[in-house]
Design a protein that fits this description.
alpha+beta; Thymidylate Synthase, Chain A; 11 helices; 8 strands; globular
Length: 297
Amino acid sequence: MRQYLDLLETILEKGSEKGDRTGTGTISRFGHQMRFDLSEGFPAVTTKKLHLKSIIHELLWFLAGDTNLRYLAQNNVHIWDDWPYRRYKNSPDFQEESIREFSQKVAEDEKFAAVWGELGPVYGKQWRDFSGIDQIKWVVDEIKYLRKNKESPNGRRLIVSAWNPPEVEEMAKAGLPPCHTLFQFYVNNGKLSCQLYQRSADVFLGVPFNIASYALLTMMIAQVTGLEAGDFVHTFGDVHIYSNHIEQVKLQLSREPYPLPAMKINPEVKSIFDFKFEDFELVGYLSHPHIKGIVAV
C-alpha cells in the first residue's frame, strides 16, 4: 500500500490550505491517481487497522439498492450514522439520545428507521435505479454479452454513475451527494479492471474504505462474469486531509506497511446479487493498531 502512503505524503508536501463545507479546514490537492494490481494481493491498508466488516456490509447494502440505515445498524455498522443523526438532533423529535442510542433505535424500530434512517437517493438507489435503469445488472449483462460475442476489447461503455444531477440536492438534504461518483470497467486478455472517479476524498478516513470496497467489487464482478481480476485504478478530484487528522496521518506515515493479504470469495456464487457477508474471507491480514479520527460532517 505504498501508493496510499505516497498520496498522504504528497498532500502534506504539496497541498494547500483550503476551506470546506464542514468548517473544519483541509490541506487539499486537485488531481491524483493510484493503480493496484489485484493479482498482487488485496489492497487493504496495513498502517492502521481496516474495519473490513463495515466495508463488506456497506457494499452489499449498495448492491441491494438499499438507502435506509436500518440494515447497517442491524449489522453494527456505523459509518453512515453521523449524517442522519445530525438531522435527527435538529428535529423536534430528538429526545437527547446519543448517536449509538439513535443507531440502536434505527435497528429495532422499523417506523423510526423509515423516518430517520432514510438517506435519500444515494448510492444504492443510483446503482440499481438511475431513472429506471438498473446499472449494476446492465453492466454485468453487458460484460457477459461482450465476452460471448468476442467483443470484450471493444467495450468502452461499461460505466456506472452515482451522480444524478436532478437528485443531487435531495441526496444532500439527508447526507452527502456521492463522493465516489462514477466507475468504469475494462476487459482485456481475460481480465476485468475498474477505474473509479472520486470527486472528493477524505484521504485519512474515507479513502482506505473506498480502495477496499471497489477492489472487492471488481473481484466480485470478475467472478460472476468468468474473468480474472485485473487492476483497480483510483482517480481523484479534490484529495484532502482534514486539519484535525494531521497528527494521525504523521503517525501512520511513521509505520512500515505489512505485506498485502489475500481475499477469498466463495466460488459458488454466480450472481452479483447473491453474495452474503459470509462469502468473504480476508486471509493473512496483519496491520498496525487502529488510529481514531473524527468524521467531518
